[in-house]
């Protein structure tokens, strides 16, 4: 599957910071990640897009959509 | 073994109308999951309690939506529906298919899923009900090869949806099918990768009859309209006059009282600038009245069902936008980007855009998206105490602040 990269490739530094931050929490909203790592929301969105395609991050739906490190959060009971 | 009888559900097979119970029983011939679904439902009817849980991680690689996790709360009792996920497929505009395509959809779904479909959900998508987690990726891969893509779920752009528009309906003021297709393709990232406080939906209705219920069931409603005056064929009016009471059925029901029927001359006249383009007169006398020639759409924002706040209907933010050429669509897309950016920045988690506007105020919102306030944004602008007019504007209109003539 090829993903359309609308905003060009993501910034590797932002990707690394997103991974680092997600390592410290269970799950987060992308906006909170952007605020926490001091990056723009669209840069974070772009990084998350690549990280999910790389199977490092995944989306999680618990009343709203969160992101988390792949496999970190189990499906809730 | 669970009880196989379903006396309560069987009641729903009686009568002349179609029955979802009959359909699920048909699917159960081939699918054990469909059979168990009936057992769970019968039990829920008996106990008056639901037995489903939802949420969690279900998706395909790189996508954050399109599959909705459903789990039965007693997997030991109902192993075949322990996982019973819903798959949303992006529908073609106007739901036009040939039989070959429908067969492809059903064949893939029967191979992996329960065989149960909902064509179509109120979301607009093709809804496929009931599959196991391990089959999600193969289902996606096969549908992808067949030319399909997943729809939206979660905090993303939800599957945009349109009325049949010019495909079958004479009332369409713009090509809803083309607009929906074009704009959906533009926002694939927003659709597949949930990045917002909550969901956001766009619905396209070709006229104010609003067959997609966009004003109540979408965050952004794109409703067909015209900016000149509706067209009246006086000969056809005379034919209607022989059959219906035009004054009672049409003029008296015009919300802005702008239609007059002259019983003597049998002619119908309209005060064009007072018409709110509600479609009532056109619906009653379609052979005699039609929209004007300069057609386009009104853009409204903020409709939603009850979540943080009660249900809202959407508010007008652009009274008229052309919806014909690529440039018009580009203008709409640009507006949507500004709107989403503002909401993404100011919205709280689980807040729909209507709720964010409600909390922060329309003024902040309009400033944020760089749209100037106009009278069409409010119901009866002159009577609205929240709209403040400059004396200059009033001088030009010929009306003083107290409503008297200047
Ligand atoms: C096996 C379990 C379930 C099945 C088969 C199922 C099926 C459906 C279907 C077919 C629709 C679409 C109706 C339409 O658009 O015409 C729908 C809508 C909906 N479902 Fe479920 N559902 C299940 C479980 C749940 C659960 C557990 C929840 C919430 C906790 C839920 C919440 C909703 C909501 C809010 C809608 C409305 C969406 C809309 O109006 O567009 N469902 N469901
Ligand atoms: S919304 Fe208007 S144009 Fe669309 S199908 Fe309904 S009546 Fe026709
Ligand atoms: S479209 Fe509605 S508001 Fe306009 S003239 Fe007809 S009934 Fe009146």
UniProtKB/TrEMBL annotation, chain A:
InterPro entries: WH-like_DNA-bd_sf (IPR036388), WH_DNA-bd_sf (IPR036390). It comes from the Bacteria. This is Winged helix-turn-helix DNA-binding.
UniProtKB/TrEMBL annotation, chain B:
GO terms for cellular component: sulfite reductase complex (NADPH). GO terms for biological process: sulfate assimilation. One of its GO terms (molecular function) is 4 iron, 4 sulfur cluster binding. Residues 82-143 form the Nitrite/Sulfite reductase ferredoxin-like domain. InterPro entries: DsrA, NiRdtase/SiRdtase_haem-b_fer, Nit/Sulf_reduc_fer-like_dom_sf, NO2/SO3_Rdtase_4Fe4S_dom, NO2/SO3_Rdtase_4Fe4S_prot, NO2/SO3_Rdtase_4Fe4S_sf. Keywords: 4Fe-4S, Iron, Iron-sulfur, Metal-binding. Residues 153-370 form the Nitrite/sulphite reductase 4Fe-4S domain. It holds the Pfam family NIR_SIR. Gene3D superfamilies: 3.30.70.20, 3.30.70.2500, 6.10.140.1420, Sulfite Reductase Hemoprotein, domain 1. Transmembrane segments: none annotated. PANTHER family: ANAEROBIC SULFITE REDUCTASE SUBUNIT C, SULFITE REDUCTASE [NADPH] SUBUNIT BETA-RELATED. This is Sulfite reductase alpha subunit. It comes from Desulfosporosinus hippei DSM 8344.
